[in-house]
Design a protein that fits this description.
Elements (H helix, E strand, L loop, with lengths): L8 H36 L2 H16 L2 H22 L9 H26 L3 H9 L4 H31 L11 H12 L2 H30 L12
Helix pairs in contact: 1-2, 1-4, 1-6, 1-7, 2-4, 3-4, 4-6, 5-6, 6-8, 7-8
Length: 235
């Protein structure tokens, strides 16, 4: 399908796909880090920390993602430059890649917080109590007990967040970043072959999803090693 398009546009779509994957990986990683910290703060933090985490997750999940992207992309950049100016530093030009990862990472972090919090609550409490009985410090307990034990419960929700991240990169087209959707729009506007290019983009997103499902399946099997298989419900 890409072969019948004018020379060069197929390469543009593939570069756009590469940009989308870069942003999705960065945003998912940032969101995962925020999610771990947020879930820990919600479960074990002080009352002030728990309230702040509750406000963060509620606001981010309540406001449409497109509105958040526009708000954080433009207002966030402006606030950073105002803060730099107040300290006597020159304004900076934040690249689209960094801004896209930061904006989507904040959105992903709110959802990851709830996914990881639920996974931690699903851990058999005997494991946590045993770690506390041995006097294990909170940081070591997080690395040695909590994270490995909650991983099998968290993977399905985190897998969905990854797939959402790959598609949410399309929202960055509204701020002019050249990810896959923006490249597709430019190709279609130039050649007037909208159908061809948007079908090609849909196929690329589908291939990315299928590849992701294969990797996620392997990670899930690795995380559940030594655990009883999940029983399939019968009629």
């Amino acid at each position: 399908m890409l072969a019948i398009s004018p020379p060069g546009w197929g390469g543009n779509l593939l570069r756009g796909l590469a940009n989308s994957v870069q942003i999705a990986l960065g945003a998912f990683g940032l969101g995962l880090a925020i999610g771990v910290a947020g879930a820990w703060g919600k479960l074990y933090g002080s009352p002030i920390v728990r309230d702040l985490m509750e406000i963060y997750t509620t606001v981010v999940r309540a406001v449409p993602e497109l509105v958040l992207i526009l708000l954080l992309y433009y207002a966030g950049t402006d606030l950073i430059n105002r803060a730099l100016d107040s300290f006597g530093y020159a304004p900076i030009d934040i690249s689209g890649l960094v801004a896209g990862i930061g904006v989507l990472g904040i959105v992903q972090g709110a959802y990851a917080t709830e996914v990881i919090r639920g996974a931690i609550l699903a851990i058999p409490q005997g494991q946590i109590e045993a770690a506390r009985a041995y006097g294990m410090p909170p940081g070591k307990m997080l690395r040695r007990i909590t994270l490995p034990a909650m991983l099998p419960f968290a993977i399905p929700g985190l897998a969905n967040l990854w797939l959402i991240a790959t598609k949410d990169t399309a929202l960055l087209a509204v701020v002019g970043f050249n990810e896959l959707t923006q490249e597709t729009r430019q190709a279609g506007a130039t050649t007037k072959a909208y159908f061809t290019f948007f079908v090609a983009a849909g196929v690329l997103y589908l291939l990315l999803t299928l590849f992701s499902n294969v990797i996620i399946g392997r990670i899930e099997r690795w995380a559940r090693r030594g655990m009883p298989p999940i029983a399939e419900s019968g009629r």
